[in-house]
Amino acid sequence: MRHGLFDRRSALRLGALPLLAPGVPTTVHGAKLDGPAKACIFIFLWGGPAQQDTLDPKPEAPVEYRGEFSTIQTALPSVRVCEHLPGIARRLDKVCLIRSMTHDDVNHTTAPHLLLTGHPMANLGQPLRDDFPGMSSVLARMGRGKGTDLPPAINLMPHSPDKAPRFVESTHGQGAGWLGPVWQPMRIESDPSSSDYTIGEITPAADLAGNRMAERAGLVNGLEASSPFTSADSSAQARHREQGFRLLANRKAAAAFDLSREPLALRERYGMNIHGQSVLQARRLVEAGVPVVTVYWQNDGITNVSVYWDTHQRNFIDLKTRLCPPADKAFCALLDDLEDRGMLDETLIVWSGEMGRTPRVGQSVPGGAGAGRDGRDHWAKVFSSIVAGGGFRRGVVHGSSDRYAAEPSTSPVRPADLVATLYHRLGVPASGHIHDRLGREIPLVRGEVIHSLLA
Predict the structure, then answer these.
(1) For every residue of 67-86, which 3-state class applies, written as one string?
(2) By C-alpha distance, which of 202, 192, 196 is closest to 160?
(3) Contacts of 2 (CB under 8 A, 6+ apart)
(4) Residue 201 to residue 187: CA distance in whole angstroms
(5) What is the pLDDT of residues 428-451, one digit of tens each?
(6) What angle do CA 45, 47, 296 make, to 5 degrees?
(7) Residue 412 and residue 301: Cα distance in Å, rounded?
């Protein structure tokens, strides 16, 4: 982002700051925001990690199923994980591992809708604005995060220098959907590991103060007034523009994005890479009062071969080098950091992709994208997720998959059940209803709270 220069594009972006609305009535009937968890960091491993090559290995299966990796003992007796997740292995007694996540959507852009909202897509061709609102936007609409200096929902979607396509931007369920643009999470695309990391929406240029701030606010107003495009969306944005400019000038808000305030040793514990510093950024935002931060995996990898965690080819070499090491390091640093700061009991951490990968190496499935000899295709019948903190039990392995990691064998967990449980821990009744744009009552989520996961 350009720092110290205010061009037309920047002006329009400033005018589009969402989630700065005045007080609004609660939309979930009977909601009491007094759950043990005050915030949630969702680390979204976009693309779908291979369950049998990460958290649910099958060392006794034939080689074409179990893959190339060895397994290592964890902090829990008789529980093993992939050799390339040593940090998680040592901390498995501090988290809840779910090995029986299941659904039937093998599309990368629509499956996240299940994980982020608890609802299937109503129409596979629908635009993002027609999505069911994500958890972060629902909480924002209910007033969670009011009184803070920052937006109550932020999506970290950092750009990688790799030329891999930005599939993550078309992910359904990431935003406010039909709640409207006012409740849309702020999306941040800057690379927090870069030496010139700045957030244009939050960090004003050094000279952007006093009269100059007012002048530039006037510029944005003038640009909109002269635009031939008007809509309810732009009107909603205009209602909060003044608050947006106050946010821009807020030094405390800007400080939340200043990673240089962290000790170098701590930054290195997270990993001096895009993902590690994004996870650290999420911790700083939660600490500053942002209720929900979603960290999306960056667009790394090799175009048309293996991008994000979507390992249709190079599954083993990419997991061993590009994916597992930074993911393991960042997650463990966050877990330890939150515990050291006394924040873990009030902060949920979710570590998950939207699906898993085929049981057999090289196996292709209908609706997938195929697999090379060293790859695995899409697979949603079973995959693994980790939840920690926020009142979830520690040292629990919930559910199991069959001998090939192909289907759940015990205690299947639907995404709607996980979302219902997260809402419950955040103090929101999962049985509640939310009003849509027409004032109709719609169930917040059609899942069951999994009480056996809760402390």
Answers:
(1) CCCCEEECCCCCCEEECCCH
(2) 192
(3) 10, 200
(4) 10
(5) 999 999 988 888 999 999 999 999
(6) 40
(7) 32
Q: Which residues pair with residue 234 across a beta bridge?
A: none
What residue ranges do the domains of the chain occupy?
34-202+262-453
**pLDDT tens digits, 389-413:** 999 999 999 999 999 999 999 999 9
Instruction: Give the SS3 label for residue 151.
Output: coil
Q: What does pTM read for this prediction?
A: 0.88
What is the pLDDT, as a whole number, of residue 160?
87
User: Quick one: tokens of 349?
Assistant: 């951490």
Neighbouring residues of 396: CB distance < 8 A, sequence distance ≥ 6: 96, 97, 453
Distance of alpha carbon 258 from alpha carbon 160, whole angstroms: 20
Q: Which amino acid would we find at residue 436?
A: D
Token pair 């069959």 is found at 402
CA–CA distance, 452 with 455 (Å, rounded to integer): 8
CB of 360 within 8 A of CB of 65? yes
Residue 213 has pLDDT above 60, yes or no: no
Residue 20 pLDDT? 35
Could you read off the pLDDT of 312-331 as tens digits, one per residue?
999 999 999 999 999 999 99
The residue among 300 and 33 whose pLDDT is bigger is 300
CA distance 138 to 127: 19
CA distance readout (Å), 57 to 51, 52, 312, 331, 393: 7, 4, 18, 19, 22
Four-CA torsion 85, 87, 90, 93, nearest 10 degrees: -90
For residue 383, what is the enclosing H or E element? strand 383-388
Counting every residue written for the chain, the total comes to 455
**Chain centre to alpha carbon of residue 211:** 38
Averaged pLDDT, 33-60: 94
Instruction: Dump the DSSP string for 385-440.
Output: EEEESTTBPSSEEE-EE-TTSSSEEES-B-HHHHHHHHHHHTT--TT-EEE-TTS-
* Per-residue pLDDT at 200: 66
**Fold entry, domain 34-202+262-453:** Alkaline Phosphatase, subunit A (3.40.720)
